Amino acid sequence: MSDLKDDTNPDKLIEATENLEISEGGKKKKNKKKKKVTEPSENAENLEPQENDADAPTTNEGDEEEKTKKKKNKNKKKTGKIQTDPPTLPISSLFPSGNYPEGQIMEHPIAADDQKAKDRFSSEEARAIDRLQLDMYNDVRQAAEAHRQTRQHIQRWIKPGMKMIDICEELESTARKLINENGLEAGLAFPTGCSRNNVAAHYTPNAGDDTVLEYDDVVKLDFGTHIKGRIIDCAWTLAFNERYDPLLLAVKEATETGIRTAGIDARLCDVGAAIQEVMESHEIELDGKTYQVKSIRNLNGHSICPYQIHAGKSVPIIKGGETTRMEENEFYAIETFGSTGKGHVHEDMECSHYMKEFDVGHIPLRLQKSKQLLNVINKNFGTLAFCRRWLDRLGETRYLMALKDLGEKGIVNPYPPLVDIKGCYTAQYEHTILLRPTCKEVISRGTDY
Question: Is 282 tagged catalytic?
Answer without folding.
Answer: no
